[in-house]
């Protein structure tokens, strides 16, 4: 939803900064992934710090695309690497939150996290499958930026379980929106 509404609106304001970044977009992608791995490990022990690290890793995830587009360094492999590492990051973060809930004996939280993780993968899969069939599919409420913001918010505020309930519902609404979108487009 954020990506659909705002697209690449940060490219222009950050173009002068992005041109001065001396590393490749893929290096930024890998750095963001490394920070997210650390965030996942920290989440299991310290939610607030883990939530802050998720946001910090998200900055790299945002800048890799901006740097690639504004410097003309976009590549198919870069897009592929970013997408694969985004899925790995999602899995690690949801598994870390699952671990947190298991540690405190909250079986409902464990279940919600795992079912939301499956939904997050379905969101990505529906887009990839639609694009494999030649159709664009960017619709829906809960894309990756929203997941990152909500997960960070829940961890930082300590409202992780209510946030996970919201994510669960919005994730499956998004999967349904994408299925409906592709069905509608392909009926034409």
Terminal Cα span? 24 Å
CATH class: Mainly Alpha
The number of helices is 8
Q: In the CATH scheme, what's the topology name?
A: Four Helix Bundle (Hemerythrin (Met), subunit A)
Q: Output the helix-strand order.
A: HHHHHHHH
Q: For the report, how would you describe the main beta sheet?
A: none
Which structural class should the secondary elements be placed in? mainly alpha
Give the tags.
flat; 188 residues; mainly alpha; Four Helix Bundle (Hemerythrin (Met), subunit A); 8 helices
Summarize the model shown.
The protein has eight helices and no strands.
Describe the structure.
By secondary structure, the protein is mainly α. The chain has one domain: CDP-alcohol phosphotransferase transmembrane (TM) domain (Four Helix Bundle (Hemerythrin (Met), subunit A)), CATH 1.20.120.1760. It contains eight helices and no strands. Helix 2 packs across helix 4 and helix 5 packs antiparallel against helix 6. The longest helix is centred in the middle third of the chain and has 28 residues. The radius of gyration is 17 Å and the shape is flat. The model has no long low-confidence stretch (mean pLDDT 90).
